[in-house]
Specification:
CATH class: Mainly Beta
Structural class: alpha+beta
Organism: Rhodoplanes elegans
Shape: elongated
Strand order of the largest sheet: 1-8-3-5-6
Helix content: 10-25%
Number of domains: 1
Mean pLDDT: 95
Oligomer: single chain
InterPro entries: UPF0047_YjbQ-like, YjbQ-like_sf
Family: Belongs to the UPF0047 family.
Protein name: Secondary thiamine-phosphate synthase enzyme
Order of helices and strands: EEHEEHHEEEE
Pfam families: YjbQ
CATH topology: Jelly Rolls
Radius of gyration: 17 Å
């Protein structure tokens, strides 16, 4: 037997709640937004459903990654730099040499996430956090749309 399925719980989608989170980045790296996502779900009274997150930019992204050891995030920046280096001979450099590599990194990591909400809590694993990944060298203000779909209390 490949796995065990928990009991299935069904709920009608009674609520759609939306907000925009503005995140100030310090340049290339990761910003933890897990607490803001939790507060949003709590604020709308989310019980069972889905939290959708959407990045409104093409040179920053969203990811779920380890939240315990900061070396993981340092190594991820290094890995993305190896996959999309600044000196790769990019044609598009409208906003500087980090512009096209930032677009490639966003392509690789993605701009949307879906996180289950179960019993009023984000169903993240023990070592998981939700992050804005800034792929540009200089600081930016990034907008993330948060949307809860589901049952509220």
């Amino acid at each position: 037997m490949p796995g065990t399925l928990s009991p299935v719980r069904t709920a009608a989608v009674a609520t759609v709640a939306t907000a925009t989170l503005t995140v100030a980045t310090k340049g290339e790296g990761f910003v933890d937004i897990t607490d803001e996502a939790r507060r949003f779900v709590e604020g709308v009274g989310g019980r069972h459903g889905t939290l959708l997150l959407f990045m409104r930019h093409t040179s920053a992204s969203l990811t779920i990654q380890e939240n315990a050891d900061p070396d993981v995030r340092t190594d991820l920046v290094t890995a993305l730099d190896r996959l999309a280096p600044r000196d790769a001979g990019w044609v598009h450099e409208a906003e500087g040499p980090d512009d096209m590599p930032a677009h490639v990194k966003t392509l690789l990591t993605g701009v949307s996430l879906a996180v289950p909400v179960v019993g009023g809590r984000l169903a993240l694993g023990t070592w998981q956090g939700i992050y804005v990944a800034e792929h540009r060298a200089r600081p930016h203000r990034r907008e993330v749309v948060l949307q809860f779909l589901g049952e509220t209390s």
